[in-house]
Write a structure and sequence with these properties.
Layout lengths: L1 E7 L3 H12 L8 E5 L6 H9 L19 H8 L8 E2 L4 E2 L1 H14 L6 E3 L2 E7 L2 E6 L2 E10 L22 E3 L13 E5 L3 H13 L3 E6 L4 E2 L11 H8 L4 H11 L4 E2 L1 H12 L4 E4 L2 E7 L2 E6 L2 E5 L1 E4 L10 H11 L16 E3 L2 E3 L5 H4 L6 H13 L2
Parallel strand pairs: 1-2, 1-8, 2-5, 8-20, 9-18, 10-11, 10-18, 11-14, 12-13
Antiparallel strand pairs: 3-4, 6-7, 7-8, 15-16, 16-17, 19-20
Helix pairs in contact: 1-11, 5-8
Length: 386
Amino acid sequence: MTLSWLIVGAGIHGMHAALQFVTHGRVLHAGIRILDPHETPLDNWTSTTRAVGMSYLRSPSVHHLHWDQGSLNLFARIQHRDNAAEYIPPYSRPSLSLFNAHASHVIAKHRLDFLLERATVRSLRSAGPEWIAETDQGAVRAHNVVLALGRSGQPEWPQWAQPYRETRRIVHAFDCSYAPPASGETAVVIGGGLTAVQIATYFARDGSGRTVLIHRHPFRVHDFDADVGWMNPIHLRGFAQVPSWSERRRIIGEARHRGSITTDMAAHLRDLQAEGHLDVIRSEVQSVLDRDAKLALLTDAGTVVTDHVVLATGFERRRPGGQLVDSLIYDHGLPVADDGYPIPSPALRWAPGLYVMGALAELQVGPAANNIIGARLAAQRILSGL
């Protein structure tokens, strides 16, 4: 059987694309399949947000899994969850619990979970009017493929931490394999962005040991990780008129607030520090030494001895997709910018029957491409071009 649509990735972007195809694209469930290494939809999202101790989203309540921007707020009213505890300013940012409950509701209502097959795509190749995806579970054929790939496979590891990468004595935030320090233990969180602050405040709040946050730069406070104007059609029309791909990349870089934290988390951090529950050190780790069963972090400000280290250092600044996308580019001569990112059409078609979303669509969708709202913007473009 040849599918109408194959979606690679069951994160927010992939699941939103499936929802749009089912509800607006007039595609039967039998004609769609979603491939992902995880067993359940949004698995990576839920495990990561739970691990870092996220309480509220950074995005406003109108950004969620559904295409109707009022869907989450309507769901909250029906579930009697439209109260102050479920939203915080600005822009009524929803609690993670409410966001996830709404997402589960949308997935169940539209039977999107039945579209998911656990499989890892090894390669993609064009075969006339079809695409063939070779996976660890066999081959899948489809007329159209959407690459909805996230950055989760590319965590950034500082050079000093590299020797400990396989030992589990130092872990990355996106490994999701850590817990608050127990009594008598010390945990160090490395980083100055929102993930680092979320983990540090979570450890300080729920742990019975000592928590230390080490960050290099002054905290950059921005309520959103990209200026909200980039969700406005006027801004996006101007972005689409920029003829140079390198200039578009420069605009994207300037519009994003990489490594920033929200106003509420900055206040929470200050409170925990003032109460003596959290030590905050502005410095940079130079090296690490074994000291009995502990690790000694040598910083500009002195030595910090710890039992656990969690790196909240973000993702590597390179294009997602790894070898899968590398091979597509090489084998099919697909157009890319100087930085290796796809140059798709305005409708996000990279080749006949091949579409991109998320970070792979940045040069068309703009600075918000990788955010939750980026899923909606990308799916609308794909559907409009059919």
